[in-house]
Every structure is written in structure tokens, then in C-alpha cells.
What does this fold into?
Amino acid sequence: MTGAGPFSWKAGGCHCGAVRFEAALPEAIEAQDCNCSICARTGFIHIIVPESRFRLLAGADRLTSYTFNTATARHLFCSVCGVKSFYRPRSNPDGWSVNARCLDDLDSLSITITPFDGRDWERHGADLAHLSEEAPSSKEAL
Ligand SMILES: [Zn+2]
It folds into this structure.
């Protein structure tokens, strides 16, 4: 049940303002709180979107990447302030994961946060794959 449109562009960014992005999000936003080794340490709350619903507005030259384990995920953070406002997730290498905590008007958004057991990746990683599909087909609803 991926949120069907309409989507609206919501802006966000890192702490110092060097990195700015926008993501097209539905009115009812679904987010994941992952317990894996890196998400637990950074407090990252995932809003996963397809490629077409993300755009980097500023700061491409300030982004630094970090990889580990399978190196599928590209953890991107601001080299000035250290904040990871979005990244290329292992679950969705064709899409982006935006950090809900880095959205400008977080308090005005309707976000449902679901726990995700990323610590047991092999069992649960595929559960998120559909979130970066460009146009979810209706037959996959339900
Ligand atoms: Zn920054």
C-alpha cells in the first residue's frame, strides 16, 4: 500500500544549510525506524521514495559518503556539519531514503513511523523494496 498521489514537494536539509533537498511526499507519510547498527546510532527515520520523487537542490559538492559491509548503501552526510539528511539505501538502491528528522516543517506533517528490524537484514530487507517503485501498479495494492 504505497501512498498514491497527490504528492507535494517538501524541503529539508542538513544542519548548517549546505545540503538542501526536496522530496515529493503523500499527505499521509509512512516512515521506518530501523534498528540496524548505523540507523540506531544516527537516529535516522526513513522515508523511502523513488528516484523521480527526490531532488538535490544544493550541496552536492559538500556530500561525503560512507559505506560498509556490502557497500550497497551509500551513506551520505554533510562534510561541514556531519548531518545525514538522505542517502542511497541498501533496501532501495534505485531510490532514496530521506531522513524525516531533516524535513523543514516536520511538525506540520502527518507521519506514521513503523519499526523496521534492519538488524535481521536477511529476513526483512526485501520488505521495503516496493517503496522505490516509480508507479506502483494497482494489482499490488493489498
Ligand atoms: Zn551541513
